[in-house]
Write a structure and sequence with these properties.
The protein has 314 residues and is an alpha/beta fold. It is built from 13 helices and 7 strands. It starts with 17 loop residues before the first helix and ends in a 6-residue tail after the last strand. Bound molecules: S-adenosylmethionine (SAM). S-adenosylmethionine (SAM) binds next to helix 2 and strand 2.
């Protein structure tokens, strides 16, 4: 996966909610920021355009191909520091001297257009490729192991809980009957043999999403990174999170509301809320019709913004 790429082989990723997200994120041009999902560098470049000479930006991504593309797109900029790693360990990726001093942290979750379109990465049912789906070669388990080694119960639960696919039992059974499954094309054919009619494409997308979430442990990684992000922020620092499916959005929503993943605000003996985070906007921000028309990949995006409360109790 550490193939060398150039911009002719990098599939362009159009940044989603670009202006809106950076408007909320950059509250101080001299501040220190983290883009936890650097990708092709679209959001990072916009953030840098809003910073003064004193401002700083860390660009985190676990994918080496994203770093290569972003380096070319951003060019030489002393204010920018690329960081290769998984944002689930955000605090360990950033020098401890910045703990409690970060002004804003951006999450633009999910996969990039490049990752989806590159058949070799195995993310898409639209391109035949190996069953991989790892966002990084730092990750252990690949889609091949999930599809070929998991028990029926485990595979069914991945498809049901992470893919939110109602036909999980039939699909898991069919996969097991057809093992070994060698490619995304074979997996697609198995799913198409079980789910008929107009819902086939949606089911394909859901099963592939479920396996991808399992391979990259996306939900547990998101939870730990939000907790780390809150610790890293200075008072009144912001987290801006763009998510692309309801499982991610629920995690973000609950955390922004309460500082925990149940979404229940704990109170002390006197009834004072025990939380150090609050939403900046009550409502979700979605891409405009115009943006979705120009970039259909933006259609499921939901953006939420929260800030660390000064003198918070958590
Ligand atoms: C939607 S893309 C970001 C696109 C970027 N905002 C841009 O404008 O080009 C998501 C990126 O986040 C990265 N990513 C996803 N989960 C990650 C994680 N747990 N740790 C680090 N990077 C991650 C992916 O590798 C991918 O490059």
């Amino acid at each position: 996966m550490d193939r060398r790429i150039d911009m002719t082989t990098y599939h362009e990723h159009i940044p989603v909610l670009l202006k809106e997200s950076v408007d909320y994120l950059v509250t101080d041009p001299d501040g220190i920021y983290i883009d936890t999902t650097l990708g092709g560098g679209g959001h990072s470049k916009e953030i840098l355009s809003r910073l003064s000479d004193k401002g700083r930006l860390f660009g985190v991504d676990q994918d080496s191909e994203a770093h290569e593309a972003a380096a070319k797109y951003i060019g030489d900029d002393d204010r920018f520091t690329p960081v290769r790693g998984n944002f689930g360990y955000l605090k360990t990726l950033i020098d401890p001297e910045y703990n409690g001093k970060i002004t804003g942290i951006l999450f633009d979750l999910g996969v990039s257009t490049h990752q989806i379109k590159e058949a070799e990465r195995g993310f898409s049912f639209q391109h035949d490729g190996p069953l991989d789906m790892r966002m990084s070669n730092l990750t252990g388990v690949s889609a091949y192991q999930v599809v070929n080694d998991y028990t029926y119960e485990k595979l069914r639960d991945v498809i049901f809980h992470y893919g939110e696919e109602r036909g999980s039992k039939e699909i898991a059974k069919a996969i097991i009957e057809n093992r070994p499954v060698e490619s995304t094309g074979e997996l697609r054919a198995i799913i198409e043999g079980v789910v008929y009619g107009q819902h086939t494409v949606k089911s394909l997308a859901r099963v592939f999403q479920g396996i991808r979430i399992e391979v990259n442990r996306e939900l547990s990684v998101l939870r730990s990174s939000l907790e780390d992000a809150l610790d890293l922020l200075e008072d009144e620092g912001r987290i801006v999170a763009i998510s692309y499916h309801s499982l991610e959005d629920r995690i973000v929503k609950n955390f922004f509301k309460s500082g925990n993943f149940e979404g229940k605000i704990e109170k002390d003996f006197y009834g004072n809320p025990l939380t150090s985070i609050q939403p900046v906007e009550k409502n979700i921000i979605r891409p405009s019709e115009e943006e979705i028309k120009a970039n259909p990949a933006a259609r499921s995006a939901k953006m939420r913004i929260a800030e660390k409360m000064s003198g918070g109790n958590n």
